[in-house]
Amino acid sequence: MQALKFFSRKKPKIVLPFYPTNNVYFMDTNIVAYNEKQIAHLLQLQQIEEKLARLEELRGDLPVLVTKLVDSIEATRRKKKDSENRLEDYKKAIEDKQVEYKACKDKVKTYEKQQKEASNDQEYKLLTKRMELEKLDVLLAQKKVKEYQNVVAKEKIKIDEFEKELNKQEKILAEKKKTLEAIDRANEVKLADLEKKREKTTKGIDVAFYDMYQEIRESIKQEVLVNVVDDACRGCFIIIPPQQQVHVMNREQIIHCENCHRVLAYVKPTKKEEEVPKKAVSRRKTQASRSTT
Ligand SMILES: [Zn+2]
Question: Which of 242-253 are b and which e, b meaning 16 or more Cβ less than 10 Å from the residue's Cβ?
């Protein structure tokens, strides 16, 4: 067998073994058989993955919604925890201020008592001054207690609101999860079967072909192997030169569409596919007839 050359395409960057194109008359039956087998397996893989994608479609936006809800619940819980911590801090601060308030009041009482027993005018005046200062501290402590009580009241309202929000979100999450689980349960067997088939099919595909397939699939998020219909790539509808069509038909090498990089392969068209070109032709005809009139 002739040595395989390696060919690199810029987009996507794939290295694939294939036969030199300058010798179109030379066709190695081995390489044709090899390519045929690889294409057949890739087609099988594509069909399985499309079925898997349809199963995933059944789940709709539920997985995204569930993730979003979980994140949102997490964020609300964090906010609630912050409020609870603030509430505790302020409750502690109130207690401290109340202790301070009582101490100041006690001092005022002491000074009042000492004032009654003052031996001279100077001592009396000094005690009056001290008493006034303590009375100011009493007022200040009272003011702070009120201020902190307001904060506590506000945090309590916030915590209640977070609690209500959490209940609401958790209820919605439970519903969404239930629906999603029901869908998954209904498709469990099908999914397991398809996963098994995918694994088996993948084993029959060479790494280079498999990587190429996955790379294209990842970038276009659509089918990778397409037909040539009416001389055009079925994926992007660009015209495929006749020489390339010959290669596609002969399968002596893997041909990528120059425009969309899909693999051009002879895939048995589905009924849906057969209908589209007809419509396109009739539309073209209508346009042509319109332009002539
Ligand atoms: Zn194309």
Answer: eebeebbeebbb
The alpha carbon of 2 and the centre of ligand 1 are apart by a number of angstroms equal to 30
CA of 206 to the centre of ligand 1 (A): 23
* CA 268 / ligand 1 centre spacing (Å): 17
Residue 2, helix vs strand vs coil: coil
Instruction: Kindly give the distance from the C-alpha atom of residue 225 to the centroid of ligand 1, in angstroms, as a whole number.
Output: 10
Average pLDDT for residues 261-284, to the nearest whole number?
60
pLDDT tens-place string over residues 168-221: 999 999 999 999 999 999 999 999 999 999 999 999 999 989 999 999 999 988
Alpha carbon distance, N-terminus to C-terminus of the chain: 60
* Spatial contact of 73 and 171, defined as CB atoms under 8 Å apart: no
Residue 123: what pLDDT? 93
Angle at 213 between CA 211 and CA 217, to 5 degrees: 115
**Secondary structure class of 256 (helix, strand, coil):** strand
Domain ranges of the chain: 2-54+205-292, 62-188
Strand positions, DSSP E, the chain: 5-9, 14-18, 225-226, 228-229, 232-233, 255-256, 263-264
pTM (two decimals):
0.62
Q: For the chain, how many residues are written? A: 293
Rounded Cα distance between 198 and 63, Å, is 23
CATH number of 62-188: 1.10.287.1490
* 37 vs 14 pLDDT, higher one: 37
Ligand 1 centroid – CA 241 distance (Å): 12
Measured CA to CA, the distance from residue 282 to residue 146 in angstroms comes to: 82
pLDDT at 226 over 70: yes
